[in-house]
Amino acid sequence: MAETAFNSDVSTISAKKRSGSSDDQWDQFAAKKHQSASNKTDDPAVALANARHEFGEHGGVNMSIEASATFTVMEPETMRRMFAGELGPDRDFFIYSRHFNPTVLNLSRLMAAMEGTEAAYCTASGMSAISSVLLQLCSSGGHVVASRTLYGGTHALLTHFFPRACNITTSFVDIGDLEMVEREIVQGKTKVLYFEAISNPVLTVANVPELCRIAHDKGVTVVVDNTFAPMVVSPARLGADVVVHSISKYISGGADIIAGAVCGPAKLVNSMMDLHQGSLMLLGPTMNPKVAFELSERLPHLGLRMKEHCHRALVYATRMKKLGLKVIYPGLEDHPEHALLKSIAHKDYGYGGIMCVDMGTEEKANKLMNLLQNCSQFGFMAVSLGYYETLMSCSGSSTSSEMNEDEKALAGISPGLVRMSIGYSGTLEQRWAQFEKALARMS
């Protein structure tokens, strides 16, 4: 297929090219604008503000929703040229929404701007983004080196599904042990180094620059899941090749949408859309354009939301620690990677909106969560994260339940580990009083 324009430039309206004629001058102008905008700042909020604003069909301040599954052409010859790869979405030629849809493409451009990558493609879920990019990068017999501390679904994909269905194997490592990571990479066989910027659920912070250096020295592609830290960390700006997201979490913010994204080089994203070999094109994890429209309306205030999530998480973690609770939060100075995160995080966005309280046993964890929800209304017992209300779950028996006991022990997941996604509804002091009320009942 044709190379696709993912320009995040500051032009306000895309040029409409419904004829097959070329316009090299426009293309060069757009490329220069894109280059200047992408190089201007490392701050993801500024990059988003610099991204092209797509106006509606009749001049609306919000873009129109292109709900069509298929698209017409004006001349028969145009369709042949589109399927031959001569004409594509970069010049406003669309074939079918499983391939590219204008509304979804606009969200993809925003995601690329936020993460500082050339391109992005938004998918129907976070797991579809992860599985599609790994299947594109790895063939049968391929090898992945991955962190031990991963979301349970990703761990199951790498541990069980890939070896059975695809003959792709994975070596799991302590991502903080750089020598171990280097040792497990088999030059010529290992295709991907995969880890989470801030891990789920134990909040290990990855040394992204050093891990990228090790991988790139051996010709390995680095894929980073940044679901826990949008705006806080920009892995691609630190050297990562590909960044994946579960957009369902912080980016959505409403716990009402399932979606994902792959952010990376245009060459990779376009290869994933190839008619014959593309994992996204052939597996079809297509995002609904109505969902893409909603998400594009939420991205502009992601930075503000992340700052409040992170601010409250730091305040609560500090206070809980003073009360004698065993708290895990990278914003605390006693966290093993506190200095590392401080050195790679964007200033003013904090240290993440997730914190953990280790109650030791599942029984105590369940008792605390029950009181926090049903006695004091501090938050809800629910999986997921990034919601405006606080969400709590006992990771070992929920989002990490796909791992066996030995795997959980290696990952540092205690039976009583309570993961809290700190919300921002109500006032900070109101919610803190609710936490103290529940804790008093625990005694």
TrEMBL record:
One of its GO terms (biological process) is transsulfuration. It comes from the Eukaryota. Pfam families: Cys_Met_Meta_PP (PF01053). Residues 1-43 are annotated as: Disordered. This is Methionine gamma-lyase. Residues 1-14 have a biased composition (Polar residues). The lineage of its organism: Eukaryota, Viridiplantae, Streptophyta, Embryophyta, Tracheophyta. It comes from Erythranthe guttata. Keywords: Pyridoxal phosphate. Its cofactor is pyridoxal 5'-phosphate. SUPFAM superfamilies: PLP-dependent transferases. One of its GO terms (molecular function) is carbon-sulfur lyase activity. Belongs to the trans-sulfuration enzymes family. The modification N6-(pyridoxal phosphate)lysine is found at residue 249.
